[in-house]
Design a protein that fits this description.
Residues 12-173 form the N-acetyltransferase domain. This is GNAT family N-acetyltransferase. With 190 residues, the protein is α+β, with helices and mostly antiparallel strands. It contains five helices and nine strands; from the N terminus they run ββααβββαβαβββα.
Length: 190
């Protein structure tokens, strides 16, 4: 039985995956502009696989990458969430829990990623009881790094790494690492 999940912010609803999310999600993951900082575009079956794996993680861990919709309209705009590390392909700082996001182009520049990420940080630190949350991306992905900074994360300058799931010679192999401890989050949020 799949758990249901719901977090709400002023403008957004963060919720469990629904069958009707696959079409807009697959369309977003096939958009070259949305995926410009990723190794490749995703075919529909890979988007479906992420949804399936996310639902399994929600059942097993109580969190995952989940859809974001605009509260006022119900429009699906992408995903934001927490994702535990993959023990089969560990990064140098694992085990860890990452916060990540991917939004469709029409949702960019409106503060949605930051708003949803702040709700997930609160959930991760207060409900799950995490001591640290990380985030990472390729060095060229300045928009995501701006979100990381906006939500209070700090760059770990010694933490740059090659992503274990990407071939070393691929342009998207090198990643920068951001961190946020529960103690620092509490100082920032009061």
């Amino acid at each position: 039985m799949t758990k249901t999940f719901l977090l709400e912010t002023e403008r957004l609803i963060l919720r469990s995956w629904k069958d009707e999310d696959l079409d807009p999600f697959a369309e977003m993951c096939a958009d070259p502009e949305v995926m410009r900082y990723f190794p490749d575009l995703w075919p529909r079956d890979r988007s479906a696989l992420l949804i399936s794996k996310s639902m399994d993680k929600l059942d097993a861990e109580g969190f995952c990458l989940l859809p974001v919709e605009i509260r006022e309209t119900g429009e699906f705009i992408g995903f934001v969430g927490l994702n535990s590390s993959n023990p089969d392909m560990p990064a140098p700082f694992d085990p860890s829990v990452e916060i990540g996001w991917r939004l469709k182009q029409s949702a960019w520049g409106k503060g949605y990623a930051s708003e949803a990420a702040r709700a997930w940080l609160r959930f991760g630190f207060e409900t799950v009881g995490l001591e640290e949350i990380v985030s990472f991306t390729i060095p060229d992905n300045l928009p995501s790094q701006k979100v990381m900074k906006r939500i209070g994360m700090a760059r770990d300058l010694a933490g740059d790494f090659r992503h274990p799931a990407i071939p070393e010679d691929h342009p998207c192999s090198m990643h920068v690492l951001y961190r946020l401890s529960k103690a620092d989050w509490k100082k920032q949020t009061g």
